[in-house]
């Protein structure tokens, strides 16, 4: 019989000891199998591929004061690091709900938590946008504690297929839920120069918003599609050629960070859903219930601060954070992603 051997998929191997591409980091992507290697990476102050290191864990736990028997919500499950801490604090009694919009990472995290012994009697995971927190409350009743750790996880940023980072070649997608809405590439296909300029400025305070918006629209007119992360980076870099060489590389990097962030906020309607969440929070909390929100840029922080202040004035909260709590110097030194974090909290009347 002329039967061909099925072709065996070979694991992607990396050359040398310092893999750069996400798919080559097979050790980091299997922390259960290569735990020693993963520990070494964390000790060096890096985040292993496919993992997320939770930020301000001690500060969040100290504020939320979770007790056995309580009901709470982790609105942004991510890798489940905070969820795990909250579950440990419940110590087997009470219930934790956890939501996330990401249909790719959510089942992985849920499976990991089930593997750690947290079944449906203590944990309910829902694929849901936190703007629909009222749907959770219909099932859970008033919540004693709520946590939201906004933005993106390291798994999402590091995976080039998701298009979140200009450092890796990938489709320009940037959606937290790629099954819904339109990608950033599709958004750039139709947007006017003025709208794009406004988006870059309002979402990320981009100082060169006009120059970059003009360059993107001009590239499109010339038939140069901007469909990948590196294509967008190139257009931004070309638009900023006027910057003196001494600072150009650094300035282009910062502009790319801001532009990718602005697009991410736009395609995920991040300000709109955060606003809805903040408006629904007081009704979701039980009397004396506590909410903690971790933000990563000034736009988010402004919205949280404003909503907390307004609801304090209206008597819905009895106390709010006057100043945000910042991660310790030690945490920032061992996890660079913590540097921009601000933690705000409120207590329901
Ligand atoms: C910074 S990560 C959370 C990390 C998590 N606290 C941990 O310890 O692993 C943010 C997560 O929030 C999710 N997310 C962002 N916006 C959301 C929204 N509107 N509704 C639900 N989840 C959202 C993202 O998909 C991502 O998984």
Protein topology:
Blueprint: H1 35-43, H2 57-64, E1 71-74, H3 81-90, E2 95-100, H4 105-115, E3 123-127, H5 133-140, E4 143-149, H6 154-158, H7 184-190, H8 193-204, H9 209-221, H10 229-239, H11 245-267, H12 270-284, E5 285-295, H13 298-313, E6 317-320, H14 329-334, E7 342-348
Parallel strand pairs: 1-2, 1-4, 2-3, 4-5
Antiparallel strand pairs: 5-7, 6-7
The structure holds S-adenosylmethionine (SAM).
S-adenosylmethionine binds near residues 80, 105 and 273.
Describe, in plain words, how this protein is organized in 3D.
- This protein has a seven-stranded mixed sheet, with helices on both faces.
- Strand 1, helix 3 and strand 2 form a beta-alpha-beta unit.
- The chain has helices at 35-43, 57-64, 81-90, 105-115, 133-140, 154-158, 184-190, 193-204, 209-221, 229-239, 245-267, 270-284, 298-313, 329-334, and strands at 71-74, 95-100, 123-127, 143-149, 285-295, 317-320, 342-348.
- The chain has 14 helices and seven strands.
- The model has no long low-confidence stretch (mean pLDDT 91).
- Helices cover 44% and strands 13% of the residues.
- It is of the alpha/beta class.
- The radius of gyration is 22 Å and the shape is globular.
- 40% of the residues are buried.
- The structure holds S-adenosylmethionine.
- The site of S-adenosylmethionine has 23 residues, from helix 3 and strand 2.
């Amino acid at each position: 019989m002329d039967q061909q051997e099925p072709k065996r998929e070979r694991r992607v191997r990396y050359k040398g000891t310092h893999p750069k591409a996400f798919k080559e980091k097979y050790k980091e992507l299997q922390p259960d199998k290569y735990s020693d290697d993963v520990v070494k990476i964390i000790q060096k102050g890096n985040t292993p591929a496919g993992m997320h290191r939770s930020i301000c864990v001690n500060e969040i736990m100290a504020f939320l004061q979770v007790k056995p028997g309580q009901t709470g919500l982790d609105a942004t499950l991510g890798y489940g690091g905070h969820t795990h801490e909250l579950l440990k604090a419940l110590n087997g009694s009470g219930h934790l709900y956890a939501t996330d919009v990401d249909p790719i990472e959510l089942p992985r995290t849920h499976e990991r938590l089930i593997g750690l012994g947290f079944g449906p009697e203590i944990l309910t995971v829902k694929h849901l946008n936190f703007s629909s927190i009222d749907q959770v409350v219909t099932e859970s009743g008033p919540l004693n504690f709520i946590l939201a750790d906004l933005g993106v996880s390291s798994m999402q940023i590091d995976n080039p297929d998701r298009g979140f980072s200009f450092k890796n070649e990938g489709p320009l997608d940037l959606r937290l839920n790629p099954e819904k809405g339109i990608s950033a590439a599709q958004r750039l296909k139709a947007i006017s120069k003025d709208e794009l300029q406004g988006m870059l400025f309002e979402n990320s305070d981009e100082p060169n918003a006009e120059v970059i918006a003009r360059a993107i629209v001009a590239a499109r007119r010339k038939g140069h599609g901007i469909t990948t992360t590196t294509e967008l980076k190139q257009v931004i870099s070309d638009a900023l050629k006027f910057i003196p060489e001494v600072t150009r590389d650094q300035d282009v990097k910062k502009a790319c960070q801001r532009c990718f962030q602005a697009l991410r906020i736009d395609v995920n309607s991040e300000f709109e859903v955060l606003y809805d969440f903040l408006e629904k929070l007081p009704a979701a909390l039980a009397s004396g219930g506590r909410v903690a929100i971790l933000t990563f840029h000034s736009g988010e922080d402004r919205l949280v601060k404003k909503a907390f202040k307004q609801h304090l004035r209206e008597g819905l909260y009895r106390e709010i954070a006057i100043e945000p709590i910042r991660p310790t110097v030690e945490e920032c030194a061992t996890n660079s992603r913590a540097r921009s974090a601000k933690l705000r909290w409120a207590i329901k009347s």
